[in-house]
Each structure stands twice: as C-alpha cells, then as structure tokens.
Amino acid sequence: MIELSSRFNFNEVDAKWSRYWVDNNLFHAEVNPDKKPYTVVIPPPNVTGILHMGHALNNTLQDIMVRYKRMRGFEALWMPGTDHAGIATQNVVERQLSKEGKTRHDLSREEFLERLWAWKREYGDTIIHQLKKLGASCDWPRARFTMDEGYSQAVRSVFIRLYKKGLIYQGEYIINWCPRCQTALSDEEAEHRDLQGNLYHLRYPLKDDPRQCIVVATTRPETMLGDTAVAVNPKDKRYKKYAGKTLTLPFVDREIKVISDECVDPKFGTGAVKVTPAHDPNDFAMGRRHKLEFVNVMRPDGVLNQRAGKFEGMDRFEAREAIVEELRQLKLLEKIEPHTHAVGHCYRCHTVVEPYLSKQWFVRMGPLAKPAIEAVRKGKIKFYPSRWTKVYLNWMENIRDWCISRQIWWGHRIPVWYCIGEGKCTLKCKEPIVSETTPTQCPHCGSGNLKQDEDVLDTWFSSWLWPFATFGWPASGKKDWDYFYPTASLFTAPEIIFFWVARMIMAGQEFMGDIPFKDVYIHGTVRDAKGRKMSKSLGNAIDPLEIIKEYGADALRYSLIINSGQDLFISKEKFEIGRNFANKLWNASRLILMNVKDPDIDVDLAKFDRKTLDLPSRWIIARFYATLEKVGTANEHYRFSEAENLIYEFFWGNFCDWYLELIKDRWADPAIQKIAFGVLRDTLKMVHPFMPFVTEELWEKTGKEKGPLCRQGWPVVSKKLIDKSAEKQMQTLMALVAAIRNVRSQWNVNPAEQIECHLVTTSAKDAALIKENTAVLKQMARLGDTRIAGPNSGKVKNAVTVLSGDIKCVIPLGEVIDVDKEKKRILNQVQEQKKALGALAQRLRNKEFLKKAPAEIVAREKERLTLLNTRVTELKQVIASLE
RNA sequence: GGGCGGUUAGCUCAGUCUGGUUAGAGCACUUGAUUUACAUUCAAGGGGUCGUUGGUUCAAUUCCAGCACCGCCCACCA
C-alpha cells in the first residue's frame, strides 16, 4: 500500500520530472532507420523573450503532438533553439546603455557587439529554462541559435546562391524607415494602425500668376519641402488648363511643373497631388516615370535636413505644425479636414515609420513564390484550420520584394565587400564583391583595401532557413537533414504566416528542393477576458510562470488547450479546470493505490475476456477504448481541445463518478483491482501528452518496472472490447439511477438512507437487466429491498414505488425508464415515418417520375407527404407530453 | 476599399460540414450531502423561440441570400 497526500503537490512534481527528463536525455532523437521520423521545429523564441501565454499555448500544442507521436513509435524530434531577434535584442542592450547615459555610437561596433554577446550569454537562455518548466520535450542538447557559427554559414551560403541567381539586388527605393531604430524595415515589419489625422489642403501659386493657385491635399504637409511636381489626372477637365504649367513651391521657392498621371484619383481630395518622390512610394514611381528630381528633406532620425531651408533641425512632427502655421499666415492654407488613415508603425518600438528613400538590399520574391504557391495549391502543404490557405495564397500571389538590409549592428553582416583601393581601380571595382568567406583582396585590381557592407540582414533572413539550417545544412558530414527533413508539422500564430511560414516554404523549396513541413497548424491568439491582446504595456497579461506556481504546469497546459478551439479569452479562473482535473487524476489514483494490494501487478487491459466481466467492468473498458480511439483521431487532426474534452468526460464522468463509486465495496475482489488498475494505467498513457507531470508521477507510483511514462507506447485500441451493448445497458441503468435520485432529491430523502423500491417495467429485457444489476441500483441510488416486475406482472403499470420512512409514494415511471421505453417506441415510429418521408420526397424530386406519373398520383403522393410530416409533428408532441 | 471569422444558457464555448432523436459542457446560480480518494468533492435543479429578415425543403439552430452588430487580417487613395 502506498501513502499519498490528498493534494497533488504540483510544485514538487513539476520540478522533479522536468529535471529527470532532461538529465536522462529522454527526448533525444537521432537518425534511426528502424523508425519513421516525426519532426517539429520550434518557432524559435527571441533570445530576449520571456515566456508569455502565447508561448505557453504554442509550445504546449507542439509538446502534445511530439509526446503523442513519440509514444506512437515515431522517432520524434522536437528541435529547440532561439532567434537572435536583431532589432529587439539590440534595443534591449541600447536601453541598458542609455541608463549609463550612452548610445551605441559612443562605442565601437566591436565593443557594442561584445556587450550584446555578453547579454546573450547572461540572459539568452531564460526562455529555454522557462520552456523546460512548461514540460517541453525538446531534444535540448540540439538547441540552436540563429547566430551560431554553423548557422551563419547557412545564411551566407543562401545569400550568395540567391545573389548568383540574380534574386538579390541592391537599389534605392522607398522603404519603411524607423527614425527611432534608424533602420529600414520590411513591409511586414511596418504595422498599420488607423490614426485620426488631418487632410491639409495647400495652395501652390502659379509662377506666372501668383494669384492663381492649385490646391493639393496631403496628410504629411512637412514633405511639401521635397515636392518636385504636382500631378493631376489627364482626364480631369478641371485641371486641363494647368497641365505643363509651372508652380512656385512655398518656402524653398522651387519651380515645379504640373504633370499628368493616370494614377491620380480625381475623386480624392482636390484631384491634384503634390509629388514628393523621395518620401512616398507612389510619388517615387511617378518620379521615375516623369524623371523628376528626388529631394530628400529628412535626416535618418526624422529631423529635417538642410534641404528643408528654414525648417532645418526641426523634428518631422514639429515641422508639420510649423509649416501649417506659416502657410496659414501666407494665406496658402485652404483648409484642414479631419481624416482617418492607416499609418505604419515600427513593430518593435511603435514609432511612426517614415517612407524613406534609401539604398537597400532586396530579394526578388516572384520566382521564389511560384513553387511555394504550387505546394499549397496541390495540397502538399496543408493548413489547419484550412481557412488560412486562402490568406496565405492571397499574400503570396501579391508578394512584393523583400527588403533584407537593416542599419543595425546585431545580426548577420551582409557578405558583401567594396573595393576602396585608391588609384589602380578599374570600372569593375565598383561592383560589390559577394563572397562566402572574407576576401583578402579585390578580384579586379588586387587592392587589399576592402570594406564590408555596414548593414546586417533582416532577422527573418536567418529564420526562414530554420527547418534545415538547424540540422547542420549546408555543412558536410553528418547529414541529419536527410532523415529529419522535411519536418512534419509546424505550429504557429496567424500573424507569423507572412513573416515566417511563407518564407520557410520558399526557402525549403529553393535550397532543399522540398517543402519544409507538411502541416501548418495555426492556433488562436491569447486575449484577456475583454478580448484585448495580452500585452505588458496594457498590463493585462497573465504570467504563465505565475500560473505554473499557483496551479501547476499541467493545469496551465490543460486549461489553455481546452480553450484553444479559437482565440482564447483568458482570466485566472480559467486555469481552475486544469488544476481540478490534475487533482482528480491524483486522488482517483490514490484511491486505487490504497486498495490495490500489489501495485506492481502487470495488467494488460486488452487481454480481458469480456465474457468473464460484469456489466460495469465491460462498460468501463468499452468506454476507455472508445475514448482512446477518438482521442487518437482528434490528435491526428490537431483537435486537441476535443481530445481533452473526451478525456475529461471519460475519466471524471465515467470512471470516477460511476465506476469507482460502483466498485467501492468490492475492492477485495482481485479482478476488480485489476480492472481499475489497468484502466488507470492506460489512462495515464492517454493523458500523458496533455498533462505530462502528474501522469509521470502517478505512473511511477503504479510500478516503475517499465521505465518513465514518456517513453511508453500508446495503448492499442482493442475493438473487440468496445462493447456497444454494455454501453447501452449501462445507459439504461444510469438513467434509472438518475431518475430515482431525482425523486429522492425532490422528496428530500437523506442520501444515506436506504429506500425500498418497487420497479415495474414493460420490457422483459429491462426487467432482466435490472434484476441482474440490482447491485448497481443499490450502490448508486441507495435502494434497499427492491422488487422488480416485468410486463404483465400485476396491475401497476409504468410506476415506481418508493418507500422512505413513512413516506410511501407511487409515481409514474415517466421520469424513469418506462417513459424511455415509450419514447423509444414512438421515436422508432418517427424514424420509420421519416424514412418513408425521405423516400417519398426523393421520388417526388425525381423528374422521370414526375413526367411519367399522372398528375393525380403526384398530387396524392404530395398529400401523403404532408400527412406523414404532420404525423411526425404529432408524435413529437406526444413525446413532449410524456415529460 | 478587399478578404476572413463570429453571433447558441447570466458568462466562456461545443454542436451545424453530412437538415430530421429530448440542442450539450465548464463556470456562475438554487437546493441538498460531509468520519469513509478528492469541497480543487458528490447529488439534484432552474436557465436557450440557437442575432435578424427572407429563400430552398414535407422538415432549418444546421443549407442559401440579404441585413445588423462584434472581431481580425490585407491594401500606395495622396
């Protein structure tokens, strides 16, 4: 007999097993020709990351699948690691510096990077430790970092391949510029948010006749200093007479032309657009078309430069106010209209991004997107839920080139050098030298004076290689990727589809010649009870580590997953369900262990012969296997909340509330011990992927001869033990018990008190069933002397007599089983009528029949149909009246 | 502007794909239980015209269309 405390002490158990699993390297996977691989790569959290609910959900989902597949006999590998997260990490260290009153420019590049690496060494594993607390069954020794040595090799190699193919180019374009981070951002990194702004109507006077003006509308008046034209639609009659005319740009006194361009929408604003080719992507395109001058009026920090004339040195928003005010005084401000529009914000620091002209590196996406679209179209890659397929395809079909250079220091430096050898240089020396290794001299002039490109690559330019770079690609030697690639499933959040999922699909096909994963599971967003995204700044975040401390890791996992059908609305109380269920598992096991003489008995549920078992035992085993089968199917289809619901219903609703109650007085029976013990052990296996800690602990308590639970096999469904008739019979008995309990409750009979009962049923079968199972009624409904009468056994029909003290009552069996019988009989009729209905309706839909048959027959059939339907309705009413 | 998702009990959600049993669960609520695995428990109960209007059908919470409200994503209307 084993003594256990009556509370599941999760803190102790969590710590014990997360250490045990890791210390014993139980999640290690390697190339194994005897097994099929099942590979998942973790979405690498940022090294700056601290576990939040989104991580907890994402990683629990992965862990469930990986543990499940491992138990199903796959060589299951969950590849862990972290992402260097360029801007985010640099920002953290810059904040540190600013506390010392410094900026990164007070340090050399090398010194700054040393600070970054020091930070990474100190704090970079924080999230890894936290994932271990969650129970993540990653192959930890394999953990990779997107800036470790081998990974850098992969990044360089990819850059060079793409460059050689002409898919990487450098050029001056309008990109999203964050004036705070002072770097370019990709389109995906600029988050658009609706802002209440203004539409300013400005007057630009004609050079020849300054009393006449063209009115242009803009949301960013400060950019007017960089205007080099005004554009109108060639079809716009209002402006026909102005085409080709010259205007004088206020403040800078530049002469600018009125040009005609199709892309101007006559309906918006005034129909005349100020053209600022250096500060707007549309205007940039127009500037190219009309060979306009590109005037950049802003410094990289968002302050106006010397080309802004008297406004030089003003911040862009300050300048906006100043310019508007001065225009007003010059009577060149027509009006200001309120105007809501989407404004891009830096996804890291939330500063308003500036469309800014600068020289950057780009990846040409069209050719890469093509096979990636095909792979999803043809179903080689599937999204779960499938509706995300459309989102993906829509984006891919409208994909734009990817700006990959960043003006920061933390990241993979662009493997490009420029020759600055003086004097001897040839024309060719102006070409960038793209090289996998650091070149020592210029290939054209032989000068050793080379300078590497200052910029680093977008973080995602390394992340998109994750599914194969983590396996050592492209280094020679141990080619783990041959075995583990392509991976099986990817688990991620919707907002990552464009950043990462799509790009991995492109990279996989381009560099490996194969898709990176077969399934993409997109999970919901974790929100607070009011539906707002959880975030530190809102202060509405619930810390998963706090939940682990207060409720246990299993509770956290279980509660998140059971709510994970769609977006999750989380409050602290939602975690009680997991805590309660873990505790239920604990206490039910405790009960069994207190009663099972030999906790090392070896029980194989599948070997029971159902002929030798009593009804409740047949039933509970049938319920177990039916549940097991459904849980397996749900897991395979990524329907984890459904799986948890099934488990909950089975273990709590069937096993604890009924079976364990039923056998309460029968523990002396070794057969009963074996069944309870067997069901428990197999349940622990089934639950383990969802709640690894409590199940592992209980598994150990139920006999450790087989080694840790996480390496056990998943129970095999025994179809022959799914006993349908046992399930039906138990349902009948359970309904009877419920009905009697109802009566007792209404009569306020003390639950401990036994009552006599006289049961009458119209069905001989039921009478026999009850007779054989009076023990069930006795135990569950506290029936004392019970007389059961079958049909024709007396005058009392369809009634139950309940004697309780001096209360004696005969009630119709309406609430008990006979009503069930009566209902069933009628329902059968209903079903039959419906079958007839279906057939008839189908016949009437058949055109041949309608053509051939005489009109009166058709009419008669139709009438019959109506009659049948009326009959069905009537029958339903009868059922209702039986209530 | 385009696209997607949602609307079912007081709250959070299943179910609807494949139309037809008595529309389910958890929480909350009401009543009762307590030496006997668990009050993180057990039993019983109340509570829903399934957003709205039409259509298809013998039959619609379920299929179709319109509408309303809520949410999300994408988009260069300056």
Report a brief summary of the structure.
This protein is an alpha/beta fold. It has 27 helices and 29 strands.
Describe the 3D structure:
- With 883 residues, the chain is of the alpha/beta class.
- It contains 27 helices and 29 strands.
- The strands form ten sheets. It has a four-stranded antiparallel β-sheet with strand order 6-5-14-16. Strands 10-11-9-12 form a four-stranded mixed β-sheet, with helices on one face.
- Helix 18 packs antiparallel against helix 19.
- It is globular and about 115 Å long.
- Residues 792-799 and 803-820 have low confidence and may be disordered.
**What is the 3D shape?**
globular
Radius of gyration, in Å, reads: 37 Å
Structural class: alpha/beta
**Number of discrete helical segments:** 27
Low-pLDDT residue intervals, each spanning 5 or more residues:
792-799, 803-820
Strand count, sense and closure of the main sheet? 4 strands, antiparallel
Could you list some keywords that capture this structure?
883 residues, alpha/beta, 4-stranded mixed β-sheet, 27 helices
Produce the secondary structure layout.
Layout: H1 10-23, E1 37-41, H2 53-71, E2 75-79, E3 81-82, H3 86-99, H4 109-123, H5 126-134, E4 144-145, H6 149-164, E5 168-178, E6 183-185, E7 190-205, E8 213-218, E9 229-232, E10 246-249, E11 254-260, E12 272-275, H7 281-289, H8 316-329, E13 333-346, E14 354-363, H9 366-377, E15 382-384, H10 388-397, E16 402-403, E17 405-406, E18 416-419, E19 433-434, E20 450-452, E21 456-457, H11 460-463, H12 466-469, H13 480-484, E22 487-492, H14 496-512, E23 517-522, E24 526-528, H15 544-551, H16 553-562, E25 568-570, H17 576-595, H18 615-636, H19 640-662, H20 670-687, H21 692-701, H22 724-746, E26 755-760, H23 764-772, H24 774-781, E27 783-789, E28 799-804, E29 807-812, H25 817-845, H26 847-852, H27 855-882
Parallel strand pairs: 1-2, 3-4, 9-11, 15-23, 22-23, 24-25, 26-27
Antiparallel strand pairs: 5-6, 5-14, 7-8, 7-13, 9-12, 10-11, 14-16, 17-21, 18-19, 18-20, 26-28, 28-29
Helix pairs in contact: 1-21, 2-16, 9-10, 9-14, 15-16, 16-17, 17-19, 17-20, 17-21, 18-19, 18-20, 18-22, 19-20, 20-21, 22-24, 25-27
This protein binds one RNA strand of 78 nucleotides through strand 8, strand 12, helix 7, helix 10 and helix 17.
